[in-house]
Specification:
The chain is an all-beta fold. The protein is built from three helices and 45 strands. The N terminus is likely disordered.
Length: 673
Amino acid sequence: MKKPILFSLMAGLSFGLSAQSQGLPKLEPSEEYQEAKPRTVAAPYKQDLRGKTVIWSEDFANGIPMGWSQNGTPAQALWEYRGPNTAPPDTVGSRGCWAGPNQSGNLGTPINSPSRSNGFMIFDSDYLHSDGDRATNGQGAVPAPHVGRLRTDTIDLSNQAGAEIGFYMYARRFQAAWYVAISRDGGVTFPDSVEVFPASELPVNSSTATNAYFRANISSYVANEPNVVLEFVFDGTVSNSNGSGRYYWMIDDIELVTPPENLLVFTRATAPGTTGEAPAHDVIFDGDGSYPKYMHLASKQSVPISFDSNIYNYGTNTQTNVGLAVEILDSNDAVVGTVLSPTVASLAPFDTAYYTTLTTAAWTAPFDGDFRIVYKAISDSIAISSTATADTFNLSVGAEYSLDDKVADNYFGTNTGTNGMIAFGVLYNLEDPDQDPNASPGMVYLQGIEMQMSCLTDSTADMEIAIYDSAGFAFNAGFPSGTQAEFRRVFTLDGSVPCNLVNYSFEDAQGRPLELSAGTYYIITSMFPNAANGVIRFANSANWSQPSYASVFQNSNGSWFSGFSNSTTYEAPHYRLIVTKPKNISLVEEDLERFSVYPNPTTGKGTLELSQPGKYQLKVWSAAGALVYEQTITANANEKINLNFEHLSNGIYNLVIENADQAPKTVKLTIKK
């Protein structure tokens, strides 16, 4: 199968690693629980057949058609027909132990094609490998590596100047590839092939929508050919250290039709003069490809955003003035902004216009709120108002700061990946000091962090959340030796955690938010399941590949990674930092009638003057909420008491004075030696 076509066409998105520095290494993935709904990488899409001719079709209404054949390696590696009278019937998808909707390996969901009820085809690699039981994983009837080939009879295209193949499918990938191989000599040889949603578009441990629609223009291979044979190939020989094959591929309602005249599609591509394949569309923050893609963007850290894409001329007509238009819609679907890219003057059929040209002007959010970002491929023949190629993504601007875009594509945690995950973290750019009148100079304020917890999370587990300056974080070693956390707190989970978005507060005992110097930080969560075989799992969004240092995790041998090879299982955790204002939660009092502290700032020595006699409790809290000093004082009226805080580090502290008769009073004390 030489000369594979490496693009695919869909109404949904195409994504993958952009051409950027690799930074941290990636870990090889292992089989994973499929808790979330299948992601919509290959979204439902059915072409408009008006003005087009259906040349050939098959909907499996009568089982596997006469004249079709199978050729497995080994011979028992066969596709299955599922129909209303088969066992199992058309209501059952994969029977594999890893591929079902629950971790127990229950019967999986079937394809949702228009004619599913009269039958469809499935190559159930997961079931062949394990017989549906994890206890016999690798001991099934036909363990991987294996290849399943389903071959059509001969199709006469001798009078057709071109042809487009399209079919509905539902698939999930572990280590496998899917192809439509093409023969022009009646099935003797298959020199060409179309790869169906390669791993760059549908990564390891991801699945398509149940009614995904794949299409490809194969005119250059089959035009005017009388002896065309198509072969649907599940290649389960792709492997990593954790094995090969597995999961499944279902197909139905196959058609060959005349290709469209005017159609542009988004595609992955390597631009001339560049290295590395770029995603079909990308979003760039602050003009810097290494800047994390914060699809929850904190308004206090807002930066300009630009957009780019690669656009392929799928139609038979040359397109002129091909460009990218991005519309930004608010929560009411009103257009609040449109940004355009430069255009490519002329794009011949089957040629690509690259992101190196198709990059829009920058856009900055005009207000806080939820936005939808709509990418549109346009030309002189295809208007922005009528283009068939439009892909939509979520962006929120406000107090929350996160890589995720509100989509839970999968879950990750302690039982994810080789050797298991013990800690993970996200990089946060907190470089803009808070400008609130009540803020201390050069500081930012954090209420806490929200995490979407899996329903499988053990409610008896513990977690530690720590904040580190990002300086010096590196491959394997993680943070430099001796690095101290800016903040550290342990949380014990309970029954309210599983299945919920949970807030973990950084506030101190007085309810004040965490105060940090402006900078760039990693917020790291370390996981302690406690129970035997205990699990802690979190939601992940897989729509955008992140720069390698944006999200990191540590496995049980202590090494740090940026994610999994050929996978976005861990890319953008639902890990939402809440950036707040000091005045929202702060209990700092401006009324200092009862006492005064001077000088302030201080080098460590100072004076406390009390206006009223009595017994007082003096406490000093760090910005991280730790009690660092405590003293009981008995004073006369207007007495002056010497203070010595020279043992404390430079920084901002909260000094609290209280007694039994009056409410506590607080003053912000700055130590600067």
